[in-house]
Amino acid sequence: MAVKRFYETFHPEHYDLRIDVNRKNKDINGTSTITGDVIENPVFINQKFMSIDSVKVDGKDVDFEVVEKDEAIKIETGVTGRAVIEIAYSAPLTDTMMGIYPSYYELEGKKKQIIGTQFETTFARQAFPCVDEPEAKATFTLALKWDEEDGEVALANMPEVEVDQDGYHHFEETVRMSSYLVAFAFGELQSKTTHTKDGVLIGVYATKAHKPKELDFGLDIAKRAIEFYEEFYQTKYPLPQSLQLALPDFSAGAMENWGLVTYREAYLLLDPDNTSLEMKKLVATVITHELAHQWFGDLVTMKWWDNLWLNESFANMMEYLSVDALEPDWHIWEMFQTSEAAAALSRDATDGVQPIQMEINDPADIDSVFDGAIVYAKGSRMLVMVRSLLGDDALRKGLKYYFDHHKFGNATGDDLWDALSTATDLDIGKIMHSWLKQPGYPVVNAFIDEDGHLKLTQKQFFVGEGEDKGRQWQIPLNANFDAPKIMSEKELDLGNYKVIREEVGHPLRLNIGNNSHFIVKYDKTLLDDILSEVDELEPIDKLQLLQDLRLLAEGKQISYASIVPLLTKFADSKSSLVINALYTTAAKLRQFVEPDSAAEKNLKKLYDLLSKDQVARLGWKVKAGESDEDIQIRPYELSASLYAENVDSIKAAHQIFTENEDNLEALNADIRPYVLINEVKNFGNAELVDKLIKEYQRTADPSYKVDLRSAVTSTKDLAAIKAIVGDFENADVVKPQDLRGWYRGLLANHHGQQAAWDWIREDWDWLDKTVGGDMEFATFITVTTGVFHTPARLKEFKEFFEPKVNVPLLSREIKMDIKVIEGKVNLIEDEKDAVNSAVAKAID
């Protein structure tokens, strides 16, 4: 049943907000004065956790009722047409990282806080009464007051105009925008600023706990990204400023508030002199993702949350497109292949997964659709597919049409396809509907039939049990031989195989570039032909080959044992893309062995065989003038070598630790995590773990914090494990935003798994209360599923999570994840002996 939207009762045009925040009392007092059109009575305005003191319409007190279950104020306006509704209210300052909330940090041993906001999806209603729906766009003026101390500054979507005699900071009126994009912050901040060539103010803001140089990288990327997007979209950035603010406590990665983008510190700030290349790439893509949203999401906003993918998928594609233009030497599209494509293929193969575009009626269900692997990763893969079909010139032409026709308004997916169709003869809408409105993706079977004809068939691919509903897709084949551009049929007969093979003179392959969202199962003749010339393949083709074989093995369409002999063919590659695919595949073999068993000892020997020559070639220390490829390959090889318990690697890492013990932060960031992990695992005790936890609390460098966490959670020491779990609920050690990483690290460590699993079951209510209002909450279940693969853990998982299956935010995740673990358990049971025999044979 459709839930009535509040926009149907009232169309806001302008908000005049006066907000007074008292940090000491942890409360907010304010008035929200909304000018707009009353469409029908009663009018419904959103509120959450508020006390409503009075409601006036056109200056007169009117009757109102607070309806908590609908997060609403029901107002009898007594008028229709244009009206001014003034609502006086008070509300608590929360610690949930939603609404208006404090962020905590330490400076010179003193605890401090800055106040920030997070309003997506439906948390603006915790800050001020509003029609909190994306379609209800309006302009906003903000007057902000707080218990101000010397040296503090305030930021908002627009520049500050003045401070009045009552201490209110007034900001310029915004352009027309949705309530979830309103943002403000205040506190003691440092900043660096610059201007684009068109005069837009670009700023990076952070607490003074950080070194000033940590702001430089983000400032440079943000400036160049805004300039790039203005040119690519052929549409000017419509605000006078683009400020980037790092908040010490932040639930998501970042948030695209118009003109004041907020970030988790780890995704904006970095030490330019000692941060890994991978981390620099990650930070750059987060910044460019949020700035892509300033047009795609902010200037043109989805009409309703069922088109959320429209915002996120597009920004996810554009982050790579822009970074590739800004830093071409980084080959950033390789990261797209190893992160977005891999995540989408894995998640989308589970029966019960959501489609990219799904119906949402009840606002309570909105957060449940933020499935990153689908809305972000699969969605961006769809748009990469569209881009490869259109080409950049047609894409830009179509986008300009889209922005020209929808700016400062709202749009749907079909509006985008209509705009793009103005630049091409292809029916983009028809192609995309087959991908957006149904879940999953196909495996294309390529085989030679008894008549010698090359045939292709499509069928939905599942990992684990799946119900085949006969779904069909419009598949861009991207073949390296003469084949249709789009496969829309269930089956294609492409003619005599020998004739086709002779004409092209090379092995036949589909999905060249790995840009289309399907996998290929070649029959033996076709696969053997490809493998006979495997050395001639480009790195992306080798990645794709391993990726498809790995997925086919997980879907039980081939045996994992058949992949094991292939691994050594890729071990000496000089491409980080290939090495990533190699170790992603090798890591899957770990699920077939028990810790400390003979089978695991064999697997470790295989890891040594795969990594020892590369470690010998690269060494443990980064060399001056090394290629980016070698810098990126080294971490994979060092990690593999340590898993292999290579004596030379253990010794080399220990020596580096000993030489740098007094200044671990200065260790080269590309090798630092492995040096620290090795020390904790092979030379550590509870005392060392305690020392590293104190170091974790001391440093403000977010990359170093991640390295320390990885090391600490890999301990074998039971006393240390107990102490770590004891810190999970101590926000002075582990901030709630970082807790999932700590939990996953300990859970993946077989010495710590029981303690971590016991903690989440015993303290679930605490976890729910602390981070349960957050769209990321369900990922605590996802990371548990990523680790579990035994019948005993499956049983415990079901016993604990099945009773929670009716919680809207968790329901889909629980149902899917039970299937995921069941699939792994069945796969291991069927394949274990064959895989372990293949590993034993490979090391002979």
UniProtKB/TrEMBL annotation:
<dbReference type="InterPro" id="IPR045357">
    <property type="entry name" value="Aminopeptidase_N-like_N"/>
</dbReference>
<comment type="similarity">
    <text>Belongs to the peptidase M1 family.</text>
</comment>
<keyword id="KW-0862">Zinc</keyword>
<dbReference type="InterPro" id="IPR001930">
    <property type="entry name" value="Peptidase_M1"/>
</dbReference>
<dbReference type="InterPro" id="IPR042097">
    <property type="entry name" value="Aminopeptidase_N-like_N_sf"/>
</dbReference>
<dbReference type="Pfam" id="PF01433">
    <property type="entry name" value="Peptidase_M1"/>
</dbReference>
<keyword id="KW-0645">Protease</keyword>
<dbReference type="InterPro" id="IPR027268">
    <property type="entry name" value="Peptidase_M4/M1_CTD_sf"/>
</dbReference>
<dbReference type="Pfam" id="PF11838">
    <property type="entry name" value="ERAP1_C"/>
</dbReference>
<keyword id="KW-0378">Hydrolase</keyword>
<keyword id="KW-0482">Metalloprotease</keyword>
<feature type="domain" description="ERAP1-like C-terminal">
    <location>
        <begin position="510"/>
        <end position="821"/>
    </location>
</feature>
<dbReference type="Pfam" id="PF17900">
    <property type="entry name" value="Peptidase_M1_N"/>
</dbReference>
<keyword id="KW-0031">Aminopeptidase</keyword>
<feature type="domain" description="Peptidase M1 membrane alanine aminopeptidase">
    <location>
        <begin position="217"/>
        <end position="435"/>
    </location>
</feature>
<dbReference type="InterPro" id="IPR050344">
    <property type="entry name" value="Peptidase_M1_aminopeptidases"/>
</dbReference>
<keyword id="KW-0479">Metal-binding</keyword>
<dbReference type="InterPro" id="IPR014782">
    <property type="entry name" value="Peptidase_M1_dom"/>
</dbReference>
<dbReference type="InterPro" id="IPR024571">
    <property type="entry name" value="ERAP1-like_C_dom"/>
</dbReference>
<dbReference type="InterPro" id="IPR034016">
    <property type="entry name" value="M1_APN-typ"/>
</dbReference>
<protein>
    <recommendedName>
        <fullName>Aminopeptidase</fullName>
        <ecNumber>3.4.11.-</ecNumber>
    </recommendedName>
</protein>
<feature type="domain" description="Aminopeptidase N-like N-terminal">
    <location>
        <begin position="11"/>
        <end position="181"/>
    </location>
</feature>
